[in-house]
């Protein structure tokens, strides 16, 4: 490991203010009508992209209900587990990591109620590889001893970290050879500023203070960060909004985009 890689692996990326903001919303995370209502609308759209990407990358049968059986998945910035639980139901042994201990507590309680909580936490060898279960940890991704994963996801997280380059490098370090990474981020455009910050936050669709438009990344910026970390991005897909369809996958990248990444 060279000095630059070692520095990135240990660099702090958690913004305490961001962690406190999202931690304060933990009790409402699983309420589809609460402060995370927009995430509940977004989640099926993201899962559609993820399932297609999994089948394309790993060659799984699109009719299979457990295409991730025998695989390990990491969701970085997992919140209270809205993505982790579906990944577990797809057969993965899932580890969710988040900056806010309150989110991890809410995620753990919900997974336990759903019968999805892993019997033992990472990095215990006995706790790893439990197909169809989730375990949760709070802390800096770069300092947790987690090993590598077949699938790594970080959705709507990059815009909330203090050091994007270090965070992407830490994600890359967790990706196993031949693995698949999926990233999503709001695009820094006039459209995202008007709809995600001005409209959504002012109209109460998203809690005030959730987004800092200046921290959004463009697809070109994310591609450059990924390349520096030894990753190659696929073709981004937009997540757009319309009055008729609501949120849906689109060729329009101006609001939000989701993309695969693999080791080059």
From TrEMBL:
GO terms for molecular function: 2-polyprenyl-6-hydroxyphenol methylase activity; 3-demethylubiquinol 3-O-methyltransferase activity; lyase activity; polyprenyldihydroxybenzoate methyltransferase activity. One of its GO terms (biological process) is methylation. SUPFAM superfamilies: S-adenosyl-L-methionine-dependent methyltransferases (SSF53335). InterPro entries: Fumarate_lyase_CS, SAM-dependent_MTases_sf, UbiG_MeTrfase. It catalyses: a 3-(all-trans-polyprenyl)benzene-1,2-diol + S-adenosyl-L-methionine = a 2-methoxy-6-(all-trans-polyprenyl)phenol + S-adenosyl-L-homocysteine + H(+); a 3-demethylubiquinol + S-adenosyl-L-methionine = a ubiquinol + S-adenosyl-L-homocysteine + H(+). S-adenosyl-L-methionine binds at residues 46, 77, 98, 155. It holds the Pfam family Methyltransf_23. Pathway: Cofactor biosynthesis; ubiquinone biosynthesis. The keyword Transferase applies. Its EC number is 2.1.1.222, 2.1.1.64. PROSITE patterns: FUMARATE_LYASES. Keywords: Methyltransferase, S-adenosyl-L-methionine, Transferase, Ubiquinone, Ubiquinone biosynthesis. PANTHER family: METHYLTRANSFERASE, UBIQUINONE BIOSYNTHESIS O-METHYLTRANSFERASE, MITOCHONDRIAL. O-methyltransferase that catalyzes the 2 O-methylation steps in the ubiquinone biosynthetic pathway. Belongs to the methyltransferase superfamily. UbiG/COQ3 family. This is Ubiquinone biosynthesis O-methyltransferase. It comes from Novosphingobium colocasiae.
